[in-house]
């Protein structure tokens, strides 16, 4: 709107200057051609009457040709100004006034107030929608709020640190408030929200681990640290691919564990379908699904052949999974256990600490020359990776806070060291397929980790067991399918999920055939990708 006020002020200034010049010329013309002396005020009156086509009063009728032509020119100027003002000023100003104004309040109750919107908020929104939990975004960008509202997302405009904004968001009737902006802004929002209501449950997303205690002191009930969890997960994924030892599993019972296995090039699984590999029939392992170049397939069929980019999501006994892990690793000569870490922010630092704790050496690459950085330079520079020893490293972790840079670095790495294993961080889930197409072997997004961690805190009766993996494993009740058999519901076909186990009366049941009937009090442990889990929650919870 400031642009239009400036434009209007400049236009009015130009018209004023034109009127003054015309009045001065009229005064001179009347003295020279008509022999009459006019004051500047009288000349000004005549000019305004001429430009506005309101008439000329006592000065109508001039004897000289020069003055008549001059008055004709003023008349034409007035008409031209009217025609110019309509399209250039008046119409745009009316359009601006009629444009959608951002909503500034909501009538929602028992909802989640989310302070600050970013692309990583979409995962949380999807989780809340699947669980039928209402929510409203609060942001101080009016254009963003208008866009969200036009897309059907509940959002309101307001200053995040103002009590009036929280009142407009109906925070007094909300079930909880989430603040996910930056550490300093989050602290101010927490203080404001706590002053507004002592009963409101406040959850804060923390970037720097050191400030978590400050947020709790300010009044946050829960703090989540997705960047640290993401760094640990990426590092753990690197350590699990360095050997045939089974390290990264979710233990559900003594006889049942769930894990995802990255199939490496030259593994004896490559080139086979799941059926041909004997994973199900010979090894007794349940294949929940698989990622083929970033696309999750819940029931891999004969058209899906395992390759060096395939990630298998499997469940079974630990001994059987250990055997499968040994088959998934490369049969070629083992490469040095050194990992290059590109980016030394919160995620990168955490990854380095995790790798060091597992006895894995690292070479850190970052733009900043600071303690802990081994090679200073851009991760998109071939020479930098060569200096870091990419041709001899086992894996590289790309942890920078920019998806475009990560994608480009992946392309560069595939030229510098085609055989190196690339484990990458993404900020937005929509960029995950691009990273797989660029050549990454494993990708996990900050949006996924953040959304799952928040959803696990905010949604009752739903526990997300794996916020830090590419797949999602949840423990939840399923009242909408109580009294029905698994075969009757056909969850795999309808949602893409697999019921891995059921907790009933303190016992974990794992032998689940199509005839298994779900009871109202059962807690189902369900696995799949995020979209599949959301479909399951919407169907069964």
TrEMBL record:
**Keywords noted in UniProt:** Membrane, Transmembrane, Transmembrane helix
Transmembrane residue ranges = 39-57, 69-94
Q: Which residues form the RCK C-terminal domain?
A: 247-330, 457-541
> For the RCK N-terminal domain, which residue ranges apply?
109-225, 336-444
Can the keyword Plastid be found in this entry's annotation?
Answer: no
InterPro entries listed in its UniProt record = NAD(P)-bd_dom_sf, RCK_C, RCK_C_sf, RCK_N, Trk_Ktr_HKT_K-transport
Q: Which PANTHER family match?
A: POTASSIUM CHANNEL PROTEIN 2-RELATED, POTASSIUM CHANNEL PROTEIN 2-RELATED-RELATED
This protein is called what?
NAD-binding protein
Biological source species: Haloterrigena gelatinilytica
Q: What is the lineage of its organism?
A: Archaea, Methanobacteriati, Methanobacteriota, Stenosarchaea group, Halobacteria
